[in-house]
Specification:
This protein has 151 residues and is an alpha+beta fold. It has four helices and eight strands. Strands 1, 2, 3, 4, 5, 6, 7 and 8 form an eight-stranded antiparallel beta sheet that branches. Helix 1 packs across helix 2 (75-85).
């Protein structure tokens, strides 16, 4: 009968933590790349999954959490901060991280996004979210159609 080292469990936990940090760093690098190359992205940070274009009307589920940052920020650092602060909301089943670069100002927008297949329902849900959160939702976006509808 051998003795088990009390440190082996700690090493396993440290290895898992280091793996998680490495995967998160890789995800952030891809997120920055997609955002800068495509002008925006949709992803699930908790699993590092990037969502393909979908015929779905997307909008901020929690408009008060939307971050609007100038183009001079360290994008990777600000994305990490936004994800950390909003981790609980971004992990909800019907939510994802939406990034967008405003083509007029160059500002970065980060949202805890959600969506709906039906445009009328999405408009109503977005308006209600704006009232509930005290911050108006300005537009809905359909990534498959590459179409924006302003409220």
């Amino acid at each position: 009968m051998g003795c088990k080292s009390p440190f082996s469990s700690r090493r396993t936990k440290m290895n898992k933590l280091n793996d998680h940090k490495k995967k998160f760093k890789e995800y952030i690098a891809r997120l920055v790349s997609f955002t800068l190359k495509d002008g925006g992205s949709a992803s699930k940070p908790d699993v590092g999954l990037f969502l393909p274009p979908r015929d779905l009307w997307s909008f901020p589920k929690y408009p008060s959490k939307t971050a609007i940052l100038p183009p001079t920020v360290d994008l990777a650092l600000e994305l990490q901060r936004f994800i950390t602060v909003n981790e609980v909301f971004l992990s909800e089943e019907d939510c994802w991280l939406g990034t967008w670069i405003n083509p007029r100002s160059g500002d970065f927008y980060f949202d805890v996004a959600t969506g709906c297949n039906n445009l009328s329902e999405a408009q109503e849900m977005a308006s209600e979210a704006g009232v509930r959160e005290g911050r108006k939702v300005v537009a809905l976006f359909n990534s498959k159609r590459n179409e924006t509808v302003y409220l």
